[in-house]
Amino acid sequence: MYILKRLGQAFVTFVAVITVTFGLIRAMPGGPADYIRARVMRNRGSEGVSMSEINSLTEAYTNFDPSTPVYVQYFDYVTNILQGNLGQSVSFAGQSVNSLIIKAAPWTIFLLTIAILLTFAVGIVLGAVMAYREGSRFDTGSTVLSMFVNSVPYYVAALLLVYVFSIQLSIFPQSGNYAVGLEPGLTPIFIADVFYHAALPVASLVLTGFGGVAITMRGNSIQEIGEDYIRVAHLRGVPGRRIAVRYVGRNALLPMYTNLMISVGFMFGGSVILEQIFAYPGLGNYLLQGIHARDYPLMMGIFIVITAAVLICILIADLTYGLIDPRVSAGEGKEAY
Amino acid sequence: MAETNSTFDATDDRDSTSDGSAATRSELYKEWLDVAVLAPLRIAWNDWRTKTGSLIILFYVLMGTVGPYLVPAPTQGQGPQLAGPFQSMSYPLGTNKIGASLLSEIVYSTPPVLKMILAGAVFSTVVATIVGTVSGYKGGIIDSVLTTLSDIAMTIPGLPLIILLIAVFEPESPYLIGIFLVINSWAGLARSIRSQVLSIRDHSYVEVSRIMGASTPKIIVDDVLPNIMPYVLINFVNSARGVIFGSVALFYLGFLSGFSNNWGITLNEAFTNAAIYSLDGIYWLVFPMIAIVGLSFGLVLFAQGTEKLFNPRIRARHAEAVDDTAPYEE
Amino acid sequence: MPSHGKGKLGKSNRQSISRRHLLRGAAMGGAMAMAGCLGGVEGDGETFVEPITVDPTNYQFNHLNLQHPFSHAMQSDQLQRYFINDGTFESYAVNIEEFEGDTAVLKVRDDLTWHNGDPGDPVNADDLYTKLVTDAIIGDTMSTLWTDIQRDGDKSVELTLDGTINKNLFRDGLNYYWLETPFRLYKDYVERWEDATTDDEIADIRNDLRNDSFDEEKVKGNGPFQFEERDNRHLKMSLYEHHPDADNINWKNWELRKVSTDTASVLLGGEVDGIRNYSAPETVFEQAPDDLLNAQLPALWGHSLPFNHEDDDFSNIRVRQAVSEFIDRQACADNYGRLGQPVEAPSGLVGNIDGQNEPSNRWENKVSDEMAEQLYRYDDPERGRELLRGEGYQKDDDTWYRPNGDPFEMTIKVPAGLTDWHPVYQTIVDNLENEGIGAELQRIEESTYWADHYTAGNYKVASTGWTLQRSSPYYVFDMYYNIDTEFMNLDPENLEAPPMGEPDGELQSVDPRGLMEELLVAQDEEEATAITDELAWITNQTVPMLQLNEINDPVWFYTDDWEVPDPDSEKYQSKWPLWWFPRNGDMQAK
């Protein structure tokens, strides 16, 4: 029953998000013709468009029939989405939004998965060690460091990393997803190269993200260490390592589980800037192009894909949380007072 | 974190005293302020992180308020073009491509940034606190509706949504931009406040108030809010940091219009002028970075310093200080 | 951007470009070196690498559809070559066989063939006819010059001109035209155009044409390189040996490679062999390695400050003049960087900068010596103050007030993304602030800026270029008095200017549009100069937009693998060296 209810809730959320974004995107000033106008104005004279034509372009590049009432457009759109059809891109002539997303999504997912896993792995280990050495120099040093890196925006880190590792030292490539000329495939060299190109973008997320995780983990662990049951366990003679991992570690980790899932959404949003800096051909890159080009179907499509990803993550978190933490019950919603 | 409110259990005593005594309304508010805000701040102040953080924040506030009176406004030709830092007192941090002093640019970026931060942090904290407490305390249908709303807000990808909103509304006032930047970040905070409230609402002192016939708003303000205040404070600071990150990013991407100077614009100018490609030019990129990171470091320090209010074990060490300074504690 | 072949100006330096990481392997890390070996196509003198910033798999092959079109200058040929330094023309893909009265006959170059075979079909009259007809469908420059068109034999097309058009204007109009319209692809549109009788019908055809997309890569081209293959990182073209100039080319491939949008890194990192046009910031010039050559040619373009002619302040010619007096165009040009020179006398005459980034007086050749002298220079702030006072403005405590008592203030709108424009307008803000006129810069997202602000006439003062990249003054005046009028809310029918040679004289009614019609059909040079004199004076005095500077486009080559002329060679003074050098044998693989 709970699962059904939760699924129902997720569905409602999904439709609501579609509705909100649909409304917003329709409210955007101008349309695809604005972008054409901008391009023409910027390249005036050298590109074969006359100004007299500019106004008629407005009609040439609209992606929906303005004569249909908005609610019909909306209904058609939602029906299409639920059938998995995100429509035709306007700015990428002749391509469907689905095909663009299929092209871009794997790269973003690849980048973000590695980044999130590494961020949490590094942060959790560091946080736990800090908690155990609470008050030591290591703890103080790491805390300051963690707080400091936590206050560096990831794009600032990205720029610095590019400066140091790509421009000054030429160790890492500055942009792109793999070297030109490599045949994509499951060859070791291709895979190695893909990781190599992902190094700086991933590093900028991990370096600025692990601090926050470490601090939270440290706080949680210290709190757990102070609990009575740990003291009891010590008295009972449970081995220290076992206490550290099974008791403290596990209980300190639990509250972070939801954080992990929610950070997926944050990271997806952040990929817009990161992919821009690294010219990484992922969803964020296309989203930005879509916004500049006023390509409504593309923008909507990417919004929906990101939303769906976040929803699924939260859903998984909610549904599995009970399995991990038996104390949690699902009865918070009773009418109170 | 259900047990974090032990220090504040005194609140229900306060309730009974205030009901029975002739304390004036303003005294009540003073008490409330003291218990809910000042006492925790005093505890926090004993922490070096809070101190350093506060000093840093104070520095930026001064830079944003007094700074523009001390430093001339950035204009072209304050010095030679692309002069390096530490060469002349009239442009201590060097100049940019049009010979404007970087120090002036950084200082004059501070007031709009502070305005954005203030608007954004106030907006998200207030909305989150209202939604969180009401939904947690009331439960039932109201809870379901508010929770669904927060879920929706939480699910929409933040930065892209903000970009979209900015494209639609073209905000120019720093206050409005600040609010747009946190347009959905209240949701996460509202959810955590809700769960805090959930654990508080069944406490005996809340029960007492209820039995005594206090109205819901009164209970929320008198009994619930003081308990979550430190948490709210931390999140105020966190959303402030979010506003800096977001605004700089959007100015950097060129999505935000408006007139304000902003460190993001300086950063972008430095980057597009290839300052990153030479050792001589890197100062142009580094100073705005320091400004951004410095303020957010101050905020993080402050938040971390205050966070210990949550941790009963750490707080216990400071319990005495609380007794000395907070007359309403037992 | 995709339509790479066209003379797109790199006005923003946030374009893109990538290769020499692989190529040079300078201080490369292990994995990169490894990838470099595999990449393996580089530095072998076989492939010229040029940057793009888009995913090549997103290209479609109808260049008239503005959404991600592919059409490359090495894939098809330009109609003619124009030398900026001496103003001469040289026919290339198309020759003007006859130009007499109101008839012009254009003929396609012999031996030119499409890339659809070995060799493919010859490029013939049908294709040229298609080029001119599609141009008429979209209503571009050339189509405004003729009234009727027909095929004239196998290779030629005959145009009936709109009067006895001045040959120089006709030739200038032919610039920036490429022969990239095979009849077989555009047949339907051409036939529909022939049958169309009303403007609405043509609008429909235009609509369909703009939305159509082709995927016939090979057929599109007749230039020295033909489409070979593409994936999401690169697009490769190979030498087409049947091109008449193929013998001048001693390498095999021309490759477009997707690179970061940070062009500076791409160029300095040596990821490419050359860039057609990149207005690099100073640091890049300083940091450029020895074997990175740069040469400049005038962009025939510059920044300007357009006024809203319906604004309370700027509808007044004297206020426009006064503000022009306060603006330091030299500082604007200096702050733009080494590639800019100020406009000496803002009057719509192109030619204030030469190929060496030095000031030039080419603009004086377009008017009489006397007029060149007379055109007002706008460099006297004191006169500006007098003009403002004369119009009822007042200066108190270093602040100017409007006649109604409000402070005199303005917002200058600029596109946020075009960061290299900002220093120019920031300078104006500072000039005006120093004079006591409140000014601020508003950066607006680019699409929004052009669509909702500039072309909507929604501004007090804004920013745009002051030419359409053609050097004849006619086309500049055309921009001010025909094309951009609605953007600037300018009414050329009711324009007033002081008499020639007397800037402070009584305003008289003038008729720029009438003068332009005369200029278009002026047959002898003396007459043309006299009319140009008048138009230049009107523009100089009415200041429809204040022309600030003129800039150069730099072309970049890596000379370690490629041999190109010295940067001061006149061969660079024709748009664009990167397209002409291979065809003329001026560029060789080492």
From TrEMBL, chain B:
Keywords: Membrane, Transmembrane, Transmembrane helix, Transport. This is Binding-protein-dependent transport systems inner membrane component. The chain crosses the membrane at residues 52-71, 116-137, 149-169, 175-193, 243-261, 281-303. It is a multi-pass membrane protein. It comes from the Archaea. InterPro entries: MetI-like (IPR000515), MetI-like_sf (IPR035906). One of its GO terms (biological process) is transmembrane transport. It comes from Haloterrigena salina JCM 13891.
